[in-house]
Design goal:
Length: 241
Amino acid sequence: MTGVTETSTDTTPPVSAGAVIVAAGASQRMQGVDKLFVPLAGRPLLLWSVEAFQLCEAIHYIVLVVHENSLAKATAMATAQGWSKIVEVCAGGARRQDSVSRGIGRLPPCDWVVVHDGARPCVTPGLISLGLAEARPTGSAIAAVPVTDTIKLVSPDGLIKRTLPRDQLWAIQTPQVFRIDIIRAAYTGALQDVTDDASLVEKMGYPVKVFRGSYDNIKVTSPPDLAVAEYILERRRHAGG
């Protein structure tokens, strides 16, 4: 023992990750019901989605983007739940990509952004952490599962053009994870409509890694989906996780 206190010379800043949870849709396929606040296994659907990110140690900040009509209700929920990681609840835009862009713009400085659909309540903290780990080598990674059905390419008049090789087809999910500079560049001047964030990143020529998601990680888009999601969540509850 020399009595000298050793200090670290590592000046690498800690890695930080922010999440944008997008829940600004109009619930058009839910027969006039706002699906975000529909009871699901005894709790509002949106609560399940946000809580997974609140519980994930790899996430430091959360921006929740909702429809302007749901702004007050979502803000009240965040306050009641005491979600410490939520830095803002804001109104979304006309398109999904407009909502994501607004959410990214309201995050504090961070290294990574995780984008997730609020209508996927069965996401887990483990899946979120996995996405962040898988994104490190390429800067982008998205959850997906191999398709189990045979997929055929069909012409507008209903005729089959060809059968696609199923072993190369994956159904894309969220969370989708991006290095902050990549996703910001992708959203700068993005004019075309896209169905997911990775599409914009792909158009810029960046490699996007696919990592194994979960068949439980369903998106609630219609009333029957609620029954499936409730079954998944209740099954986890009885299994202790």
